[in-house]
Amino acid sequence: MSDCPSCGRYTGPQDACPYCGAHRTGRLPLRALKFGAIALATVGLVVLGFVASGVEAPLVQAGQVSASMNLAYVRLSGRCTRGPSYDAQSETLSFYLDDGTGEVRIVAYRAEARELATDARVPAVGDAVEVEGTLRVQPDYLSLTVQLPSQLVITRSPAADREIGSLSASDAYQRVRVRGQVRALREAYPGLTIATLRDASGEIPVALDAGLLRLSGRSLALSVGDALQVEGTVTLYRDAPQLVPAWGTDVTVLDEPALLATQVPVGHLAADEVGRLVLVQGTVREVEPFSAGVRFRLDDGTGTIDVVLWESVCARVADREHLANGATVQVLGRLAMYRNALELAPELPEDVRVVQSAPLPPEPTQVVPPMVTRTPVAAATSIPTRNPLPTPLPQPTPWPSLTLGVAIAPIGALSDGLVGTDVTVEGSVVEATSFSHGFRYTLEDATGRVMLVLWHEVYDDCWDAAQINLGAEVRASGRLEQYEGQLELVPFGGADVKALRGAAAWATPRQIGSLGGGDAGQRVTVEGQVLRVEGFESAVKVFVSDDSGEIGVYIWRNVLDRIARNAGLGTPGSRVRVTGVVETYRSNLELHPQLPADVTVLEVPQ
Questions:
Q1: Rounded Cα gap, residues 520 and 552, in angstroms
Q2: Which CATH class is domain 508-603?
């Protein structure tokens, strides 16, 4: 302003009033205002950052997130339920977190993903996780992007040493450590390998993610027969337990071999041990080839047992040329019953080991007779008698040669146009049922499913029938047929069906009293004593009781006739184990076993 603040007269640009001599107040320079504003803003930001650093991001639940919270910076806490997975091309690390109200995908990109990998701070299934990040809310999708790797906190339980056979569905999300032998390797899909690990108590699938191994900087080349130690979390796949390692270092190849069974005398084996993995050693007797492999008898002095080597095993046995009558052999296999006789069928070539080759017979020594001086006879010329040649000694029976090579058709390639042709497939048994004239199995490979039908005469002639259950890996050859619009594979004989990897009847063990209407359709295993039996024209109903309750086990006649020691089912007090599907009939629970091997008579009172 240009007026004097004292007298009010106009002073112009003068600093002092020419009329009254009063001094005017100077204006604040614009530059000073600019620098002051910058300084004030800087101080404000510093103060705000200091205050914010002491305040946690708000903890929210997945079920509370709404569209208005898109791009909000929040904190989540829960359990890792899926993953982790890593995409090397986009450098994306992701996993799923469940806090009980919903599931959220947690994602880290590029620099953040690399830092998490470098620090080995990657959650495993079952880990408790707390994480901060930015929400991305979409109509049918919820994710959180990690901005600061330091804000991902993982709490992992220590691994407990367990036997594989002790693991069940109730151990879901528990972290365990197991040791065993790799019995099979298969690629479920590109990037995921399933290794079947077995110890003396049982077997379990181990899921190995190639992306996770690559992220951890681990190159893992496994072979069937390797001994492994695996730390991982128990998860469920189709209600069956499997093991998922958290990091590449959780899988260790051991130098010492895995002990799958303790050697037992052959004479001590009994019918109630059918399905158990056993190790025997003895002398090879009576080698006999057949259409699908080789059969021989093993004698250890306490008894004998038939050993069956399918062609897929026989052709790859180490030192196969030394196998012959008289050779000492050690055999690992699952005990089976065929036509009321015990037999052993090794699953892998490594299960057969030549301890000592067949002894070679001594070289025959030719005896030279002494020279005899004969007195000449004038009337006749004597005919010299030839010295008898030494009798050749028997040689060891050579191992028979096999013609191998079978074209395996992908199940997904089977079509109506192939009906009436002969095909061979391999797959896993995912369903099994009985019907009045036989048994049906659903085989599945990576390309599709097909129904395998075994008529009673084929089933009875199949050496591996007792090992073909849910989870078994099967090779089957037969005629492709169609019934009610569905493709079926019908083998001609028992030798056309082989268990590449056998499976025993198994389901989640339950107390009978714990079963209810909500369990209808579920597959369970119960164990108890026979109370009584009711007979029908086409079935029997065996009432089984444990300390918690009783249940009726409904067994069709065609299944009953093929159960080992089935007379024990009609004896009150017999102890049995039954695996079957829970059904409801007239408001009463029943258990329906589908296959003969689903029922085991453990003990019959004397």
A1: 14
A2: mainly beta
